[in-house]
Design a protein that fits this description.
Layout lengths: L2 H7 L11 H7 L7 H14 L4 E5 L2 H20 L18 E6 L6 H8 L41 E9 L6 E7 L16 E4 L8 E9 L8 H11 L9 E4 L2 E2 L9 E3 L9 E7 L3 E11 L10 E6 L2 E7 L16 E6 L23 H35 L1 H11 L3 H18 L4 H13 L2 H8 L6 H12 L6 H10 L1 H16 L7 H10 L16 H14 L20 E5 L8 E8 L8 H21 L4 E9 L9 H12 L6 E5 H29 L1
Helix pairs in contact: 3-6, 7-8, 7-9, 8-9, 8-10, 9-10, 10-11, 11-12, 11-13, 12-19, 13-19, 14-19
Length: about 700
């Protein structure tokens, strides 16, 4: 009998499905990639075990120190060609550094660990018939959060070793198991992989609870700050009262219920702070949710804005603006908005509406689609309430702020036909940016002084706001009878040529890398088109005679423009800056702003020497203005040229790149590569054109 004949006789009548370690890797590592998300899973497990508290210990200082050490060592190995560069992200910290999660829940016996905890994808709510009727905790006091039986794998997203110690009341011992991430990598059926257990005897029978210890922490998963970790946990469990379930991180109570909102919608809410809302779905019936919409005093990061949906006290989706239309009136109010929704019904049925990693709801269902539409409408109704609050507050701030009172007095002196609308525009800007903000105090005087669309929008775009904001403010400008949007469009369209010329010089520098000879072209282009550096530099000369005298003195002191020294052939004179733009506020008579621009040839990479040269210029100006001027002078530096290659090996180029990477939002000297200059100019002007043209098209359609 040959081999094939024997094989045919042994054919089985059925097969067994096997689950290999790679499946655990997909469900553990890939779903829970940060320590914060891992901790959320373990806190949820503690809640479901009827715990009254959970204590989380994170040795953040030791983690930070160890991360730096192991990452530095790994990078050296990468540089030596000994390992793949991406494996640096997974480098584990020493195993003596652990994160510990300890709760006082009912705990687990050794049988429950084997029959309930370790089985994968055990439906936590399913009864013996497979129906999800077990929706409450063991005590019956809480609707449980767990459902799918996968949260136990969360630890492997942040650690190589997950140790579990658990004890039931009435037993005199605890059960301890240790799972290592090797089980994620085995190619055989994971049911055949033994997980060793140990026991600790002679414990008080009244003790109960579970402790999870994460060690072998993965360096990329534990990079979050302690503040971020606390916020992640607080956001995940909004609405749980500390007296019911207290969450402590390094001894500090996490209270997610405390909020400081300046406006809350709607006004008529229940004692718990929520309002009730009911909507109907055909063939399903009525669905009830609870919600409120709150607005913070300060704008929120984009990732925090919008609605968060909770099911059984745990985050199920969001934050998101969902279907809120971006073009609606006062949409900017969404920057301050948090909407909290309790939709418990969605997690108390046999249909699962929440995705496995609880990052969103299943939008492929009719119920969820209608829910998101309803929530979007509730946010839409709340935004005008906040907009009205901001306008009222802006009026009050204009009266209480020194600069605001001065600007209000200037408006009162304007011609009658523009006075009312100018006041509305001033209030709009105050509400948009805040009276005390640098943006408002820089922009509002210039706008009120010009009061024509061209100059107003030129100064507006220096805020680097998005096109929708530009279009929104332009809408207010059109209310001023003598202002035409066409003027702004003509101006922006004309600037396309300047942007094209700058891009051409940048490309020429790339082609002639290492040569000299086109610095003069760049100098001339930026001097004739200073708005390419910053949009508001388009009017850098003022009609203020006294200021012009000051500018002349500064120019003579710095030897710039007509006071520059004679050039020796093609050799650059390194004793002076290339350009000095001077701006002042003719309404408020100061403060003055001096913008010092140092240019370098597009063919030569910038170095630390160029940066230090500009620092010397700024020192000389500061010294001179302190000794010769009674006005406050603000001095800004711009170093413009071609950035060194990312892989530059020259020490002076690498030093400059290091400063560039770490420069803040408003550095004393801003380093700008020519490619960034081109991209910024395009973003500000080309997108403004599109926004205004789109508005023009919309109005023509409406007409």
């Amino acid at each position: 009998m040959n081999e094939h004949s024997a094989d045919a006789e042994q054919r089985p009548s059925d097969f067994n499905m096997q689950i290999q370690g790679g499946m655990l890797e997909a469900l553990g590592i890939n779903m829970y990639t940060t320590l914060g998300r891992c901790l959320v899973e373990f806190v949820a497990n503690a809640y479901d075990s009827d715990a009254t508290k959970v204590d989380i210990s994170i040795p953040i200082d030791k983690i930070d120190e160890a991360r730096k050490s192991v990452r530095a060592s790994a990078k050296r190995e990468v540089a030596a060609g000994k390992r793949d560069r991406f494996t640096v992200l997974l480098e584990a910290l020493p195993t003596d550094i652990s994160v510990i999660i300890e709760d006082d829940g009912h705990g687990m016996s050794w049988r429950e660990i084997g029959e309930k905890y370790l089985p994968l994808n055990r439906k936590r709510r399913a009864d013996s018939d497979g129906n999800e009727t077990l929706r409450k905790s063991e005590s019956g006091r809480r609707f449980v959060m767990g459902r799918k039986g996968l949260g136990k794998l969360a630890g492997f997203g942040a650690a190589e070793i997950v140790a579990v110690t658990s004890k039931r009341s009435g037993e005199s011992f605890s059960t301890n198991i240790e799972m290592r991430d090797e089980i994620l990598k085995v190619s055989k059926n994971i049911a055949d992989v033994p997980i060793p257990a140990t026991y600790k005897d002679d414990l008080p029978e009244g003790d109960h609870g579970t402790t999870i210890t994460l060690s072998g922490l993965k360096s990329d998963a534990v990079k979050e700050s302690i503040g971020t970790l606390k916020n992640t946990i607080a956001e995940a469990f909004y609405g749980i009262r500390p007296e019911e379930f207290a969450i402590h991180v390094n001894g500090e109570l996490i209270d997610a219920t405390s909020n400081e909102f300046v406006v809350v919608y709607p006004s008529g809410r229940e004692p718990d702070g929520f309002a009730n809302h009911t909507f109907s779905i055909e063939d399903v019936g009525e669905i009830s949710i609870k919600y409120f919409v709150g607005f913070r005093a300060k704008s929120l990061p984009a990732r925090k804005r919008g609605a968060r949906i909770y099911c059984n006290n745990r985050l199920a989706a969001g934050p998101s603006l969902f279907h809120l239309p971006t073009g609606m009136h006062s949409f900017h109010s969404s920057d301050y908005m948090e909407c909290v929704v309790e939709a418990d019904e969605l997690d108390r049925s046999n249909v699962d509406f929440v995705t496995t990693n609880r990052s969103q709801l299943r939008e492929d269902t009719e119920v969820v689609r209608q829910l998101l539409t309803e929530i979007s409408e509730l946010m839409k109704m709340a935004i005008p309430v906040h907009a009205k609050y901001r306008e009222t507050k802006a009026e009050e701030d204009l009266e209480s702020d020194k600069v605001g009172r001065l600007l209000t007095a200037i408006v009162a002196g304007l011609p009658k036909k523009t006075r009312r609308n100018a006041r509305r525009l001033l209030t709009t800007l105050a509400a948009e940016f805040g009276v005390e903000s640098e943006d408002f105090q820089d922009l509002a005087p210039v706008i009120l002084n010009s009061l024509n669309a061209t100059e107003v929008l030129v100064n507006l775009v220096h805020l680097r706001t998005n096109p929708e904001t530009i279009s929104k403010v332009a809408e207010h400008l059109r209310e001023l009878g003598e202002i035409e949007r066409d003027d702004a469009l003509k101006l922006f369209r004309a600037r396309r040529n300047g942007i094209a010329a700058l891009q051409s010089l940048w490309e020429k520098g790339e082609d002639e890398w290492g040569k000299k000879g086109i610095e003069a072209e760049l100098h001339e282009l930026l001097k004739n088109n200073p708005w390419l550096i910053r949009p508001e530099l388009s009017n850098y000369l003022t009609s203020d005679e006294d200021l012009n005298k000051v500018v002349t003195k500064v120019a003579r002191h710095l030897s710039v423009d007509k006071f520059s020294k004679i050039m020796d052939g093609n050799k650059d004179d390194e004793t002076r800056p290339d350009l000095v733009f001077v701006m002042s506020d003719p309404i408020l008579q100061g403060p003055f702003v001096l913008n010092v621009v140092e240019l370098k040839s597009p063919t030569i990479p910038l170095t630390i020497d160029h940066y230090r040269q500009l620092q010397d210029y700024l020192f000389k100006i500061n010294e001179w203005t302190d000794n010769n001027l009674s006005h406050v002078v603000s001095i800004r530096g711009f170093l413009i040229g071609t950035m060194p290659r990312a892989n530059a090996s020259a020490a002076k180029q690498k030093q400059l790149l290091d400063i560039f990477k770490n420069q803040g939002a408003q550095p004393e000297i801003r380093i700008i590569g020519l490619n960034e200059l081109v991209n910024d100019a395009r973003a500000v002007h080309i997108e403004a054109i599109r926004a205004l043209e789109a508005r023009e098209t919309e109005e023509e359609y409406e007409e």
